[in-house]
């Protein structure tokens, strides 16, 4: 009689454990919500301080520690590759060994993680010249590893290299259908971190918002 009760109990506990272990993680804003509402973005843009872009004096990427370990042995880059891809398989070191990634900047599809970069929507250098130079190292580290705001994107590596540290008045994604999301998310990040925009940057963002 005890055995009949014990077996179902073990099965129930095992199922409960599996449910906890295999529960999907949080979906990043870049996939859960394709951009802030354009009306909200326009209001946020109007609230940003407009001023000339600062200088890069004193800037270095080392002042923005990035690819922190976020869970187990997984760092921020590896976590984003898992979140942004489809059917991603990772090795024991958390590095993706297979999967499919679609770059929102150009629409290209990749099956090798080495062909994909994790881009900062607002580049580190852009944040430096618009306010981050006055931040603490801890604040810059949080910005560089932000998995909550739409700050990190998995994109084609050479397209990311083309963007480099440019602002929207200097560079836009090749895929025009993504311009609306690009503008709303750039604004969302700058608004959250209270970074300034230039007049030219504001005009470029407004133009992209008008295409939403």
From TrEMBL:
Task: List the InterPro entries.
Answer: GmrSD_C (IPR011089)
Q: Where is the GmrSD restriction endonucleases C-terminal domain?
A: 113-207
Q: Which Pfam families match?
A: GmrSD_C
Q: Which protein, by its recorded name, is this?
A: GmrSD restriction endonucleases C-terminal domain-containing protein
User: Which source organism?
Assistant: Amycolatopsis viridis
């Amino acid at each position: 009689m005890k055995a009949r009760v014990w077996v179902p109990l073990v099965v129930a506990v095992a199922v409960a454990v599996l449910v906890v272990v295999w529960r999907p993680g949080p979906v990043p804003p870049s996939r859960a919500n394709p951009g802030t509402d354009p009306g909200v973005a326009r209001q946020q843009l109007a609230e940003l301080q407009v001023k000339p872009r600062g200088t890069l004096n004193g800037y270095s990427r080392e002042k923005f520690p990035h690819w922190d370990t976020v869970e187990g042995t997984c760092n921020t880059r590896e976590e984003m590759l898992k979140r942004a891809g489809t059917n991603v398989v990772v090795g024991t070191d958390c590095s993706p060994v297979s999967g499919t990634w679609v770059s929102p900047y150009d629409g290209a599809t990749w099956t090798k993680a080495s062909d994909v970069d994790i881009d900062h929507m607002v580049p580190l250098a852009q944040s430096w010249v618009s306010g981050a130079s006055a931040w603490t190292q801890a604040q810059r580290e949080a910005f560089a590893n932000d998995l909550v705001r739409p700050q990190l994107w998995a994109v084609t590596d050479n397209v990311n290299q083309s963007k480099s540290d440019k602002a929207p008045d200097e560079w836009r994604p090749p895929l025009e259908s993504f311009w609306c999301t690009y503008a709303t998310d750039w604004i969302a990040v700058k608004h959250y971190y209270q970074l300034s925009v230039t007049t030219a940057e504001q005009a470029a963002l407004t133009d992209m918002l008008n295409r939403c």
